[in-house]
Amino acid sequence: MNIVLWVVQGLLALAFLFAGFTKATKSREDLSGQMPWVEDFSDGQVKIIGILEVLAGVGLILPAVTGILPILTPIAAAALVITMIGALVVHLRRKEYPGIVVNVVLLVLAAFVAWGRFGPYAF
After folding, report:
1. Burial class of residue 12 (count of CB atoms within 10 Å of its CB; 0-12, 13-18, 19+)
2. Could you tell me which of 44, 70, 74, 92 has the fewest CB atoms within 10 Å of its CB?
C-alpha cells in the first residue's frame, strides 16, 4: 500500500505542479481558451490558485522524501481535497460538466493520500 500511495502522490504532484505552474505564469486571457472558468476570477486570484497548487504539489513529495515535517504531506493532500471541492462548485455553477469528472478523480486521489498518510500508512 505504501508503494501505491507513493505512485498516487507522484501523479498528483505532477498534475498539480503542471496545472499550478500554468496558472501562475500565464495571463488570464491566455488561459481562457483551455480554462474558461478563469473568466469568473481576477488575474491575481488565478495566479494565487496556481501558486497554491504548486505548493501543494511540492508538499505531496518533498516533506516525505526529506523527512522534514512529513506531516505536511497529508496536509497538502487534504488542502487539495478542499481545492477540488471548490473547483467542483465553480464547474457546477458554470455547467462545465466535463471538468467535473477531472475534479472528482483528483479529489478522490487526494482524499486517498490524505487518508493513507494521516492514518495507517503515515511516515
Report:
1. buried
2. 44
